[in-house]
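Researcher: Excuse me, tokens okay?
***
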Amino acid sequence: MNEQNQIYKIRHSLAHVLAQAVQHLYSNVKLGIGPVIENGFYYDFIFEEPINEEALPKLEDEMRKIITKNYNFEKSIMKKSEAVEMLYRVNQPFKAELANEIQDDEVSFYTDGDFMDLCKGPHVSNTSEINPDAFKLTSIAGAYWRGDEKRPMMQRIYGVAFETKEELDEYLRVQEEAKKRDHRKLGKQLELFTFSDLVGPGLPLFTPRGTYIRDQLIAFSEQLQQEAGFERVCIPHLAKSDLYKVSGHWDKYKENLFHVHSNQSDDEFVIRPMNCPHHAQIYASAKRSYRDLPIRYLESTTCYRDEKTGELLGLSRVRSLTQDDAHIFCRDDQVKDELIMVLGLVRKLYQALGMNFRARLSFRDPNTPEKYLGTDEEWQRTQDLLKDAVEEAGLEYYIAEGEAAFYGPKIDIMVKDALGREWQCATQQVDYFQPQRFGLTYTDSDGKEKPVVMIHKALLGSVERFMSVYIEHTAGNFPLWLCYEKAVVIPVSNEKHVEYAHKVAKQLNNMGLRSYADDGNETMANKIRKAQLTKIPYMLIVGDKEQDNDAVSVRLRNGINLGLMSIDELAERMRNEIANKV
């Protein structure tokens, strides 16, 4: 976010006002940091006695009192040595630590009223610029100082803030809706996946219903890719560490790898964190001609990364992630056409899933070139190429500096869900450097060996992460082609109609349309409610009329009644719905 934007200044100023309110209401509080974050701010504290969320309304009231004082935010400068000494003297050791790490000889403070804080700014000029009805403190969480588990645990108070009350109200409305759609809640309600302490955190276990959705998504992705000329390959789940040392991943991701000890050799192994080095070895297994290119390998398989336990979140952040991964090996003059082709696959996939998207051009940060492989000229050329490809594909896009991989820029597909939130899912990355590290070449028409270019691509990205997004996007109301159970047959009377209900369910199952008869000892109304809670697309009511006419009365999960239909009519409707992915 641009630090000069007014909303940034408001949120930054509110972080100070929060710390000021805390000091008004509690004694001997030690202050941490208070940055701006997406939609708001937070501030870290250590209290003499920990507080809970019941304290938030009281803190909000005190913040509003401060805001109405119309305090100016005034900047002052102090020598660093004097600032550090002063901060220790007033028992603010965390602030003193921060001040001591500043490279300049002088440090800046901002004062509003009776509160002064170490800060580089910017802030609003006066608290009167803050709308007292357009912010809210939302939660308290634990956070280690500087993110280090060996440092003290602090209490982090989160807040959201906007320029108007209407923006705040809309944000809070969306957040309430997001709670209802939380994929962890719906995953349990719909019996899609579970976690086990015995298996371990971040390692999801998928039920038959969840597995069906995974399989259908992966199958659709692979179908699109195979139609475009990708070929399936298969690789092992571990490799010698040497593979990742040569590829360049070892230095960047060593701490996120699961290391494996062999009792039979001295070789050092790791469980596979990504697939590209393996696929590079398949390419390297034979001599390649310019006539062979492009070569496109695809594989939907699981990788493993040692994420921090505190950062794991349902399916959104896991330790075992399945990728619909693929790698293209091509000539330099083929790169743009290959990118445009893959963007066409992206469009087909997300249109079928009913999701809008735009491209994020993830470029390197020009201020920290040392973090990336390659020269300035190479990066500029590749970034221009990605931009041209996105424009020729007709995609909306924006540029995000600092989001590139260390070996190359990316086209990240930002998918918008039903609540307007954006999620990074599909991706394409152009890589000139890993092929060089592995010595991957092809023989050109002039008989000379030339370096091949590698394009990394995924349509869904992490299948687990995509499922978390899609569950929340649909609120669990999946299209028929992704539903494990397509229909439930509900008898009006168990005594009179349950046998016919089972007959209908069997007929549909024989047609490849998984269905079941609800023969439980409940009322028909309760069975309908239960089917709606489990998001079954079709509820088929059977009574005397239906039984006499060898038919069903069709009710959709959204409450629409389609009336009396024969089994064949119903099956044709369902098959068309599945075939068209609607």
The chain has a mean pLDDT of 94. The domain at 189-473 is CATH 3.30.930.10 (BirA Bifunctional Protein; domain 2).
